[in-house]
Amino acid sequence: MIPDLTSEITFRKLSIFMTFMETGNIARAAEVLNLSGVSVHRALHTLEENVRCPLFTHKGRNLIALPAAWTLLEYCQEVMQVMERGLEEARKTAGVGQGRLRVGTLYSLTLETVPQLIMGMKLRRPDLEMDLTMGSNETLLHMLDEGSLDAILISLSESEIDRNHLEVLPLFHDDIFLAAPASAQLNTEALADLRDYKNQKFVALAEGFATYAGFQEAFHIAGFEPEIVTRGE
Questions:
Q1: Which residues of 49-76 are buried (b: 16+ CB within 10 A; e: fewer)?
Q2: What contacts 167, CB < 8 A, 6 or more positions away?
Q3: Are 106 and 140 in contact (CB under 8 A)?
Q4: Where is the HTH lysR-type domain (predicted)?
Q5: Is the pLDDT higher at 222 or at 33?
Q6: H or E segment at 33?
């Protein structure tokens, strides 16, 4: 049976109520919660309205808890403890919060970047176990979206970042370089102009990998479609 609870009775209001009951004073409760006294008073007032029975009485400028408020406090404490256990068990079921972090990374980052991050994590959290999965941008984003990874290390352009869906922390910015056989005698004193290599054959990574979008954009700016002889997977 679903209890008859109004949407106005929220965990936030119950938390404010519990803090007020512990401090016995609106001003002290507001200070503990880093809220204004008006916000605390409003939360207590609307909670009382939705509980549908008197919880407080005024004595001068002070708000005094009635017996019903102390009864509600006992059940609030029990509810909060049960909810805390429920959240913990839910995280365990999802594989989160058990001292294990599931991280996805690009293959190219496993040479230097990922080992440094793992060592830094071990220094701060020696008890934390880490599962490492390697793949392309596309694969890792899909695994993060479906919940099989907790965090991923990938390459993104600003246009690819959906900050409403993902929490993004930039680690570093990288450049794309033109590589060629030594016999090509590239001019290393200036930036490469791809138009000078219009008739050359190119090797590229397949769609979904980190440099794919940058590769495509560079040739779009150069104004020609490159001849790709091999696409790496």
A1: eebeeebbeeeeeebebeeebeebbeeb
A2: none
A3: yes
A4: 9-66
A5: 33
A6: helix 26-33
Structure tokens given for 128? 């934390």
**pLDDT of 52-83, one tens digit each?**
999 999 888 889 999 999 999 999 999 999 99
User: CA-to-CA distance for 134 and 119, rounded, in angstroms?
Assistant: 18
Q: Where do the DSSP E strands lie in the chain?
A: 56-59, 62-65, 100-105, 129-134, 151-153, 201-205, 227-232
In whole angstroms, give the CA distance from residue 222 to residue 193. Answer: 8
Token code pair at residue 182? 């030594």
- For residue 89, give both structure tokens: 């068990």
Rounded Cα distance, 38 and 71, in Å: 25
Task: Give the DSSP H/E element, type plus range, for residue 20.
Answer: helix 11-23
pLDDT tens profile 160-182: 666 677 788 877 777 777 788 87
| pLDDT for position 208 | 57
What's the chain's Rg over C-alpha atoms? 29
3-state helix, strand, coil in the chain (%, to 5): 45, 15, 40
Q: Residue 206 has which token pair?
A: 């397949």
Domains, the chain, ordered by start? 11-80 (1.10.10.10), 98-173 (3.40.190.10), 175-232 (no CATH)
d(C-alpha 108, C-alpha 70), whole Å: 60
